[in-house]
Sequence to fold (411 residues):
Amino acid sequence: MGATGELSASDNDWTLGIFDTKAQASGTHEAWYKSNHHGTFATTWHSTYANGNKHNTFQIVISEAIGGDMGEGNNVCFCYGDMQWGPGDVHVQSSNNSDHAHIDFSGGTYNNAPSDNSLDHKTCCFHADKLKELGTSADFASLCHARGTEAGSNGDPHFKTSKNEHFEYHGQCDLLLTKDPDFANGLGIDVHIRTKVVRHWSYIKNAVIGIGNDILEIEGSALDFDSKTHYWINYESQGELTEFAGFPVKMFSQQGTAVTKNRIEIDLDSVYSGQKIILSTYKEFVKVSFENASEESFGNSVGMLGDFNTGKTLARDGVTVLDDFSELGHEWQILPSDKHLFHESSAPQFPDRCIDPEDPRGDHRRRLDESSIDEEEAEAACAGLTDELDRKDCVYDILATRQDLEMAGAY
Fold:
């Protein structure tokens, strides 16, 4: 695979050229791309080497906007998956008096260039203009950070453990996602989600997080052109929010579009390097992510997400493994002994048990038949996701909820 992303320069302008994938006759090469009206383009490659037992997965994201998910000041991200093969080192190269720079898999050894394996599961983000300044002496690794573990829950409730195991629970109640009284040197953390049943499935309607003495809740919105982030800070609607429990907070809101995607980032870097908790919304769907979570930060946590170190979905006794996820959901319903964090109560509350949908596991084929979107369209909409299980969850959500293809934006 000679996949090369080029930045071609003139005196005043740098333009990112599209990657070239040069298939080898005995290998297989797949590519997906997606763009949107916000000026963002993403393309993903999965390539199998000649003998068929080594794979590379790679994604590039380009945006007209600066910052956001890419990080402050950036408009390009290179996202590496499992890099199992490559003829040479990945590197930054400058040539022709610095009017050309590229990052590739195509061989050669350059100053301080990381090897293929060192880029596994890392994201390298930058502003296109800055590559002109790097030259052959650049340490490309300085642009990159490990994605680490991202556990959490989202949308039509998909739960992802620290071991990247995905499962669903469809029911309506308040659930304890995770808690640890010793989090952040004894501040403690509690994260709860509130789910709502719709026909044969459910979704996360609200999420709330408590750290120390502070409480932050977020809710989605089904209204078109509603770019407002709906939140409560210490039970005050839309209160001032620049820090939370001593941690810096950033808010991002998509403006001027019929479908809005907003998020609140809690930066844990002062205690846990490179880690964040992200509360985000897409339409009425809410997502909770623990970015770059580690054993140090969540190793002692308990809840719906299971044991951080093993990924086992444990009952409240900390011993019993629950592989029936309906049973797991009922086990982690908020009890009177748990903290009650939401700004208002909603049925059911214990001792009333979680409300299961009529068909908890879902008659999948019937829902596909009822959908106005076919499976191929859904797969194309979700193709930009690098994680195979995320892609499957995304396709399922589009079809099962009978939403439009932009439902992929929830990921």
In short: The chain has three domains: 4-146, 149-358, 363-411. Residues 1-25, 87-116, 360-368 have pLDDT under 50 and may be disordered.
